[in-house]
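USER:
I would value a second opinion on how I read folds in token form. Give me a protein, with the fold worked out from its sequence. Write it directly below this note and I will take it from there.

ASSISTANT:
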Amino acid sequence: MTLNDIKKTAKETIGPHCKVCPVCNGLACKGVIPGPGGKGTGLGFVRNYTDLRKIALRMDTIHSVISANTETSLFGKTFKIPVFAGPIGAVQMHYSDLYDDQSYSEALVKGCAEFGSVAFTGDGVEDDVFIGTAKAIKAYGGIGIPTIKPWRKNEVIEKIRIAEEAGAIAVAMDIDAAGLSILAAQGKPVAPMPTHILREVIESTELPFIVKGVMTVEGALKALEAGAYGILVSNHGGRVLDETESTVSVLPEIVEAVQGQMKVFVDGGFRSGLDVFKALAIGADGVIIARPFVTAVYGGGPQGVKVLLETYEKELKEAMLMTGASTVQEISMKHIKFV
């Protein structure tokens, strides 16, 4: 099974909204919601992708590195690469009914776990969605990170308990989902969360807690104050607020502000191991990728997920060898240039 095989099959199965474009850059699906597009003009999605193109890798092949080690340790576990699958919910609405949220998560978790990575899983209006994804994570020894919407505090804590029972290695909350009006339309509104409530949520569990949807230094410092294990720099794929900045453009100032006091992850427009290298050079601890994994699942199930991760691993290793970095920890700003 190759990436081309996966894309060919996905074109036939993924539904009417996603075109499985040769380059997943947000241009063909501007405003396509339901579907994979960015909100309104789609600029948030488009900027995520195009701003990554403004970063070049600095090639240097006069060095002693002959084997690149892409392993990274997070959440008390070691992973083959610092690349993880992002949470996708309501797949039947946004894609096709080949999968529902539970079967999609099962395929995603299985593929990631068998490769040596981990999947963030989604949440939904119906409680069965989160419960089902938690079961999938439990079946693979807890190698998954359930992601909870910013519901009322008590409901968030109830779902944390489900994640704990599943043995999940961590738990996340996509606080940026506060802008998902589609949830309110289904009778389940979400809302922003003040720092003191966020702190109460984080203190309710011993699991590493990741706050997804941080786009400013101020937001990062509030998450740090609340006790988060880490943050995910994310604009929700450009799907919750039109004309946002790209994630990679705000990443440097956020990394500098938190000064290593918590983990910093990033998503948004990452499409290759070279893109992952750029984020690591800026200071990210890991990269989360979402839309390409939808194509991988619809085009190849768990095996498609593994093929995609193997591709990212190969590309990241090539970038490291051609720039002189032997481990992911050695990748730094000296290896890239903003152009």
In short: The chain has a mean pLDDT of 95. The longest helix spans residues 291-321.
